[in-house]
Structures are given as C-alpha cells and as structure tokens.
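Hello again, I could really use a second opinion on something today. I owe you a coffee for this, so here goes:
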Amino acid sequence: MVEHENNPEQLVAAIERLSALDFLTNQDKASIILVSQELKPTALVEMYYLDNTPGYSEENFIHNTEQLKQTLQELRLNVETKAGSEDQNSYELFYIGRTQEAIENLIHATQIVDKIEKDVAMGKSLGIPDTAIEAFTHNQTIKLNELPEDAAKEFKLANFLPSQDHWQEELEFIKQQNEVLQKLSPRLITK
C-alpha cells in the first residue's frame, strides 16, 4: 500500500469517500485507486450532464464534479480537467495521474487523429498490458462471457478487454490489481 503522507488513515478515509461516490462507475473508482497506489499511470473519467435527465439537474452535475475534485485532492493525485457543452448538455473530463508528465501523455494521446496510433497511446497511458493493446487494435479481444466464470469475474473492474491469445497472462496482471482493491475497497470487488 502506498503511504499517504505518512498517514494511512487519511488514505483509507479518502478511498472510502471515493468508493461512496455513486455517480462514478466501479471501474472508474478502481482506476483512480490503482493510480493512487502507483499500479496505473493515469485514469480518464468522463462525467456528463444531459439536459432533461429526470431527477438530475445541472446543479447536481456541478456538485458531483466538485466532489470528485475534492476527493482526488485528498488522494494527493494530480488532475487536469476539460469542460465543455453542446446542445445544452455538459461534460467534464478528468485526466488523473500521479505525475503531471503522465497526465500530459494521456492528454496528448486523446488528441491523436490516427485511430490505431491513438488506441496504442491511450492504452499505454492508461497502463493497459501491451498484449491487450495489440489485441484491441487488431480486433482480437475475447468477450468476458467467453472466459471461464472465475476469470470473467476478475476482469469486471479492468479497463480493457483481454486478448484471445494472452488472456491468462493478463488475468495474472488483473489479479494483482484486484488484491490491492480488495484490501483498500472491498465493496468494489464484491459488487
């Protein structure tokens, strides 16, 4: 476990607050925790406000983005945001990393025009195994429902699809991440 300014209680409290943010997906929460533990270089979180969403106002959206920013600060993570709107719909992108350089690499990757080059750069920036990146760019991934049930469960918080040829190696990679998630936020693993 990566120390939190010599105060592991603060880390645990910040991760508990992150885990309780119901507007984030479990996959986003897992990615942020893994960045905080230096097991991933970056995470990219996208938040949207769609006009006319019943029970969700623009004020809710603003409150949620501020809550996420505060939680990321508590986790001592660097963040850059990009906000915008289109047709009365708003969005905010959160580029999250342990270092500013990692965030800059992620931002650069999102701006690449060539699809394959962009997919490779994004995958590397997000800490996805090279075998999975290669498989994704060549449409050689395997669907989770095609894996053995216990393997599919391990991949549920992964931010990539496993490759047809190397899913067992990628499974070991994911198991290491899931062990850390189990220690720091057991509710993510059990959901």
Summary: The chain has a mean pLDDT of 92. The two ends are 22 Å apart (CA to CA).
